[in-house]
Structures are given as structure tokens and as C-alpha cells.
Write a structure and sequence with these properties.
Elements: H1 12-27, E1 40-45, H2 51-62, E2 66-71, H3 84-94, E3 97-102, H4 107-113, E4 119-124, H5 130-144, E5 151-155, H6 162-171, E6 178-182, H7 191-199, E7 205-208, H8 211-214, E8 220-223, H9 234-240, H10 248-251, E9 259-261, H11 282-300
Helix pairs in contact: 1-5, 1-11, 2-11, 3-4, 5-6, 5-11
The structure holds N-carbamoyl-L-aspartate (NCD).
């Protein structure tokens, strides 16, 4: 049985296959509308979420399946002290596949070790968020037509931003990709991510604190929110939260075919005036996330259409 805990669980060939299925769903959604008839997805979200949970649930409904949902640690048996292992065993009796978000790094791995159904990591603490990366990859594929030879700027909270960690791993596997890591000193990409993804593969990267200086060279700009919930004190958060704000003024210096991405939710990082710029891709990214989750559910449930 296969789970998706880390984007590294998928080979480049498997990513290509998921993207091909997602593109086919976009072209002909009716072909897939009963593909998961009689199957149930459990969504276990022990951390706030709008997009990811609804995206999984919409994905399962659009495949003709059903959804069982736990939203919030306070409304589930976790509040009574149940372990992740026991929760996983119990949910395995009800559902065919589960998606879990948890504030603790590694929680979905523990669930997978104790589950008899596929487990999808829907975000674990400041660690990984592989299905956001699937959304990001479909966006890049449709907007840029390639993954190779891109200069990718990642900006904001690169320390706690789990979407960034997974995206670096995924893109570092392609030829000619270069990263520009734009963050305050305190919020740099953790060294374990750099060691595993960038240094072992000799992927070129620069680290800077200056967004305006980096902007003209970028093909992709991936903005992120400062992850308030993972800060140890409010003062640091308040000091760092508005480090970067993308505005139409700043975008004047960028390439005409730049692709501006953001996993959302946005707080202040992108001025709403940027939304009408044709380079703003973050709402398309939301839609693409649903199609990639549909493709992933089909793959993990081994449903052939
Ligand atoms: C992201 C997350 O949960 O890590 N959101 C999402 O799933 N789209 C990004 C964030 O919360 O900042």
C-alpha cells in the first residue's frame, strides 16, 4: 500500500503521471465523475484549514465518492487524549483513504505506520506539505510549460513554511533550476532542507533579504505568509510579519511572464492591487490543487478510469 507523506515519495515519472491525469480531468471531468463511487475519504484536520480540507473534500465529491470529516482537535477524540496511532486504526475501519493535517511534525507518518488504508499528509507542522506542492507543480506546468531552467524565488517565512520545504525538494530534481531564497535572517530555509535537497544535488541557490533586487531575474515568485502559529513569541512575529509586501510598483521591475504564486492564506504579503495583474497565479493555484488531489486519490486507491 502507498501513502503520500513527503513529496520525495513520488518519482519524477509519478509526478508526470499525476499531472497528466489532472490535465485529463480538466479536459473531461465527466469521465471521472463516478470513478470513486462507494469509496470514502476521511479528512482529519487537527489544525486550521480552509483550502486544503475543502479541496480534498471537493476532489472526492467530484470523483463520485463520499467524505467523513473531523475538523479541529477540540471536536475529536484527540481532545480526550487519544493517540495518533489509535485514531489511525479506528479511521481505517470506516474509510478507504485518509488525509491528515497535524501541528506535530511526523504525525501523518505515525498514522501511516498504524493504518490499513493510504494516508495523505495534508501538512505536518513546519515540516512538509506535499499536496500543496502537487498544486504548485500543476500551476508551474500549465503556466510555464516546463520545470527545467527556471529561476525560482521563494519569499517570506522559509523557516516554518512547510510548502516551501516540499517545493524545494520537488523542483531541485529538474535540470537548470536555480533558487533565490528571499527571507529575513531569522526565517531562512532550515539547513537540513538545504543539505538534503540543494547541496547533495549541487543545485545553485542564493540567499538574500532583498526582494526588489532579486525580482528582475525571476521566472517564478512564490510568496509565503509569516507562520504566526509556529513562533515562540508574539514580538518576533510582529517585527517580521510585514517584511515583504508585493505591490504593483515593485512588480514593474519583474519579467513580463513572471508567475506569482502563493499557497494562501494571504495576510499582507501581496497587495490586493496585484490580483488583477495577469502574472498573479495564486487563485488558479487553488483550482489546480483540487485536480491534483483528484489525481492523487485515484492513484492511491488504484482506480483506473
Ligand atoms: C499553507 C499551509 O497550510 O502550510 N496553506 C495551505 O495549505 N494552502 C500555507 C500557510 O498556511 O501559510
Amino acid at each position: 500500500m502507498k501513502h503520500l507523506l513527503d513529496i520525495k515519495d513520488l518519482s519524477v515519472a509519478e509526478l508526470d503521471e499525476l499531472i497528466a491525469v489532472a490535465n485529463d480531468i480538466i479536459a473531461d471531468p465527466r469521465k471521472y465523475s463516478e470513478a470513486c463511487h462507494g469509496k470514502k475519504l476521511a479528512t482529519l484536520f487537527f489544525e486550521p484549514s480552509t483550502r486544503t480540507r475543502l479541496s480534498f473534500e471537493a476532489a472526492m465529491y467530484e470523483l463520485g465518492g463520499n467524505v467523513l470529516s473531523v475538523a479541529g482537535a477540540n471536536t475529536s477524540s484527540a481532545a480526550k487524549g487519544e493517540s495518533i496511532a489509535d485514531t489511525a486504526r479506528v479511521v481505517s475501519c470506516y474509510a478507504d483513504i485518509m488525509a491528515m493535517r497535524h501541528p506535530k511534525e511526523g504525525a501523518p507518518l505515525v498514522a501511516a505506520m498504524n493504518s490499513s488504508i493510504p494516508v495523505i499528509n495534508a501538512g505536518d507542522g513546519g515540516h512538509n506539505h506535499p499536496t500543496q506542492t502537487l498544486a504548485d507543480l500543476l500551476t508551474i506546468s500549465r503556466e510555464k510549460g516546463r520545470f527545467d531552467h527556471l529561476t525560482v524565488g521563494l519569499c517570506g517565512d522559509l523557516k516554518f513554511g512547510r510548502t516551501v520545504h516540499s517545493l524545494i525538494h520537488a523542483l531541485s530534481r529538474y535540470e537548470g533550476v536555480k533558487f533565490v531564497l528571499i527571507s529575513p535572517e531569522e526565517l531562512k530555509v532550515p539547513s537540513y532542507v538545504k543539505a538534503e535537497a540543494l547541496k547533495t544535488r549541487n543545485v545553485p541557490y542564493e540567499q538574500t533579504t532583498d526582494l526588489s533586487e532579486a525580482l528582475p531575474s525571476l521566472d517564478i515568485l512564490y510568496m509565503t505568509r509569516v507562520q504566526r502559529e509556529r513562533f515562540f513569541n508574539e514580538e518576533d512575529y510582529l517585527r517580521l510579519k510585514d517584511s515583504y509586501i508585493l505591490t504593483p510598483e515593485k512588480l514593474k521591475a519583474a519579467k513580463a511572464d513572471l508567475c506569482v504564486m502563493h499557497p494562501l492564506p494571504r495576510v499582507n504579503e501581496i497587495s490586493v492591487a496585484v490580483d488583477s495583474d495577469p502574472r498573479a497565479c495564486y487563485f488558479k493555484q487553488v483550482l489546480y490543487g483540487k485536480y491534483m488531489r483528484m489525481a492523487l486519490i485515484l492513484k492511491l486507491l488504484e482506480v483506473k478510469v
